Structures are given as structure tokens and as C-alpha cells.
Structure to design on (330 residues):
């Protein structure tokens, strides 16, 4: 009896580890930037290239920074969620058009709707590197002091919004 | 002349690709050598099992450009690696540093080795204990000798 118990025990442990491993998403890496000041940027605006969107303009409020692009499939998936959040007026979502062509980005927003008060253009992808972006869409929750409080990798979903992001935003707004 | 170029490219597609890949090398061989040495130690975040040197993902290209610029600015390897780690975390390193969160990663294989060796020693000892000396009686001994000699006489 004992002879079979040990291999069975090892088997159960290995299956346990593999089972947990299967449910993890290898694309979701913990960001070292959560809890750190949001990297500063000062970039031309998509709708008016003469104007600039800068992190300094956004201090003193809780805001979301959403990296997206017209070439990004996941961005279309999350788009209805962003539109709804923007309409609720709970929090401003600033857009960062990541490594995109201006005309295509403008056309994309025209076709699917624009949830952003202002969109900045990160043509070179440098702001993306500073924020540790490795796949759009990515969304950052930034507090009144300009500190990153949460990072969403991949499309925003309604359930993540309700269970994680909205409660966090309410808490941060009350601080 | 354009058709000739086309024919050459079609016949030797490697040539065109090689010419494209090698273009930044010519600019400054020292910078490229350092970039290459660094890039094999860094992981591409998009295709996670490729190094920054191997990957063709747009992000990897951007990061190589960024690293190249830092090399030109004469930053040390440590500064460059810190730049990437503060943005992407330890995951960009193919050799993660030894700290509390990575202890199991570093010590795990040795623990398994020690565990396996201990189990082996115990199993061998147990088997040794099970072996008992058996001696043959005179009659049995004669019978064995007889059977062996019969076997030897067989054609």
C-alpha cells in the first residue's frame, strides 16, 4: 500500500502545480511601476497637433491613461466598455495613440466613437516604453498625486471594471 | 537593370534579407557588439521565449533602438539594465537576480536533487536489508553440480 502512496502523492502535487499554472495568464506580468509616479510625458495631441498633452496638466485628479491604436484588435474589444465608462462621467480617460498613423487613428475614433477628452500621440513608442507597455491595450489608473495605482494589461472588461477599477477610483477620489 | 536585381533577389532571397538585417551594423561596430551582448541577456516581452536579440516584434525593435541610444550615450550595462527593469520588472532578465521572490527558482533544482538523492539512498538501503544469505545443503549442491555437468555434455 505504502509503495503506491508516495508516487500518488507526488502525482497529486505535480497535477496541483500544473493545474494552477494552466489558469495563470503568462502575458500578465506584475508591473514594477504600480505604486511609483507615472512617467512624465509631453506629447502632441491627436486632434490638434499644435497643442500638447502633458502629465503636468492632469495632476490633482484621478485619471485613466489608455494605450490604444487603430491597428490593435483588443482595443476594439474593450472600446464599448470605455465608451460606457466615459458616458458615466466617473473618471476621465486620456488616450495614448501608440505607434499609429494619425489619419487612421482619427478615422478609427470617428467610426467607433471617442471616449477620450484628449488623445496624445506616441508615434515613436517612447512613452509606451516609459510606462512598460508591451502590448496594447493597456490601461493605467493614476491618482491625484500622479502615482500609478493599477495597471490593466489587455482589454478592459466590464467585470474587471466593476470589481477592481471602479472601487479603486472611488477610493482614490475620496482621498 | 531592375529585372537583373529582381532575378538576383529571387534566386538568392537570403542576400536581400541579410542586407536588410545587417544595415545598422555598419554604423558603429562597437555599439552593435555591446547591443548584441546585452540583447541576448534580455527577454522580449512580446514573444516571451525569445531574447531581445532574436525577436522581430516591433517592441523588441524599439527596445533595441532605445538600448542602442543608451550605449551611444555611454551608459554602463548596469544603468541600461536598470532602465529596463524599472519599466518591465525582473521578467526582462533571462538571469533573474537572487532575492526573496526568486529564492525557489534558484534553490528549487538543488532541493529536488537533494530530495532525489536522499530517496535513492533510502531505497538502496532498504533493498540491501531485504537481501538474506541463503546457503545450500549438501544434497542441493550435488544436484546443481550434476545439472551443470549435464548441460556441459550436451552437443
Amino acid at each position: 500500500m505504502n509503495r503506491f502512496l508516495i508516487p500518488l502523492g507526488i502525482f497529486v502535487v505535480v497535477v496541483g502545480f500544473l493545474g494552477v499554472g494552466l489558469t495563470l495568464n503568462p502575458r500578465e506580468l506584475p508591473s514594477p511601476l504600480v505604486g511609483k509616479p507615472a512617467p512624465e510625458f509631453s506629447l502632441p495631441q491627436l486632434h490638434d497637433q499644435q497643442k500638447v498633452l502633458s502629465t503636468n496638466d492632469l495632476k490633482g485628479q484621478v485619471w485613466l491613461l489608455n494605450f490604444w491604436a487603430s491597428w490593435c484588435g483588443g482595443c476594439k474589444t474593450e472600446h464599448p466598455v470605455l465608451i460606457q465608462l466615459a458616458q458615466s462621467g466617473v473618471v476621465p480617460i486620456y488616450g495614448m495613440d501608440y505607434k499609429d498613423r494619425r489619419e487612421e487613428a482619427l478615422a478609427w475614433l470617428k467610426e467607433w466613437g471617442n471616449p477620450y477628452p484628449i488623445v496624445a500621440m506616441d508615434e515613436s513608442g517612447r512613452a509606451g516604453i516609459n510606462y512598460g507597455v508591451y502590448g496594447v491595450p493597456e490601461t493605467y489608473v493614476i491618482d491625484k498625486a500622479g502615482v500609478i495605482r493599477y495597471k490593466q494589461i489587455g482589454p478592459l472588461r466590464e467585470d474587471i471594471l466593476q470589481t477592481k477599477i471602479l472601487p479603486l477610483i472611488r477610493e482614490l477620489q475620496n482621498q | 537593370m531592375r529585372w537583373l536585381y529582381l532575378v538576383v533577389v529571387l534566386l538568392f532571397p537570403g542576400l536581400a534579407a541579410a542586407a536588410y538585417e545587417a544595415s545598422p551594423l555598419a554604423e558603429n561596430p562597437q555599439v552593435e557588439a555591446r547591443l548584441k551582448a546585452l540583447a541576448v541577456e534580455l527577454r522580449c516581452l512580446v514573444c516571451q521565449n525569445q531574447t531581445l536579440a532574436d525577436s522581430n516584434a516591433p517592441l523588441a525593435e524599439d527596445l533595441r533602438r532605445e538600448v542602442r541610444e543608451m550605449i551611444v550615450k555611454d551608459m554602463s550595462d548596469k544603468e541600461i539594465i536598470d532602465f529596463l527593469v524599472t519599466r518591465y520588472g525582473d521578467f526582462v532578465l533571462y538571469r533573474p537576480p537572487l532575492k526573496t521572490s526568486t529564492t525557489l527558482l534558484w534553490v528549487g533544482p538543488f532541493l529536488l536533487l537533494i530530495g532525489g538523492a536522499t530517496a535513492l539512498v533510502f531505497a538502496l538501503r532498504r533493498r540491501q536489508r531485504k537481501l538474506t544469505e541463503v546457503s545450500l545443503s549438501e544434497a542441493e549442491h550435488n544436484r546443481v553440480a550434476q545439472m551443470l555437468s549435464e548441460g556441459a555434455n550436451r552437443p
